[in-house]
Amino acid sequence: MSIAAVAASSLMMNRFLTAGAATGKGSGNALAAVAVAEYHLGDKAFTDRPDWPGYSEMKAVVHYPRRLAKEKIPLIVLLHGQNNACYVPDDGPSGWPCPKGVKPYPSYHGYDYLGRALAQDGFVVVSLSANGINHFMGVAEQRAKLINQHLGMWQKLTSSGSGPLAGKFTEAVTGRQADVDFRGRVDMTRVGLMGHSVGAQAVMVTAGDDNRGKVPAGVRIRGVVTLASAGGRSPDDESIVSRTSFAVVSSECWREGDREFFDNARGRTKLPAFFVRVARANHNFFNTAWTTGPGSVDKDDTGCPQTPNRPTAAQQQNFAATYLTAYYRLALKDDKGGMPVLTGARRIAGVDTKVDKLP
């Protein structure tokens, strides 16, 4: 990359750090530049039999640049973790699909702040809903298969305009059919994944060295981020990632097992890998639908509630948006301008980190 390109990239990163994009409080022009659509193919559209007896929805919210460039742009898929499937009290009726009159819990909308920030930066961002998997207690393998099924649909859509997603996009606000054509606009050889909590295990399994053959034809995963993972997995399992770049974002006041993802790649990978320990951070604040509020499952789940100088929810979310933007620029665009953010050399407001890097 030229000196001029690096300087321009650094300027863009500085602008992002001060724009408030993470919380949706950026400039009106920036927010207006992002369009939002959804698709929903049915609450029982995903199955994994005979390995798993349940079923789940094929549903997602999509943030994308309102003016799609003529050249193809990268795709990023986000996946939430385990939580209630529906808006019901703990002792109320349960089931999937949700009982009549009960709304699904919007865990997949908890990353809208990430979708906005990344779409402003030139990515198509797809946040998946997995409430059925949550209800039927699916594990990382079911979530990984869900990711691959969505990726396969996007590959068909972008390559030929066909497949299950053709004509299925609706405007997020009005519900009317969305006037958007992704055909030839998305580069499925530059795909990023992000998983939160048990979703983190799923994205590592999806990108795992032993599972590369399960990724749909024409799709290449080039970057993976885990947020506050529910824990790592043993070093001899299918979540070992050494042939794809990744970043592990670990919350100090949550759990420590996610370091296994990073340590498993030591001595194996030649690609950039980061382990980021976020001081005093909790698990839930990375998802706005799980952040302290009126919902039955909204809470501050920190393991160190009395620790002073803990990041606020807004600070954790701003950190996630800033760090992930820098990371996906590196992994999907080969843009090294955000490296000071990735290594911790440049501090993000309100958040302290300790970063290890491979190789």
Automatic annotation (TrEMBL):
SUPFAM superfamilies: alpha/beta-Hydrolases (SSF53474). Residues 1-21 form the signal peptide. It comes from the Bacteria. InterPro entries: AB_hydrolase_fold (IPR029058). Gene3D superfamilies: alpha/beta hydrolase. Keywords: Signal. This is Chlorophyllase-like protein. The lineage of its organism: Bacteria, Bacillati, Actinomycetota, Actinomycetes, Micromonosporales.
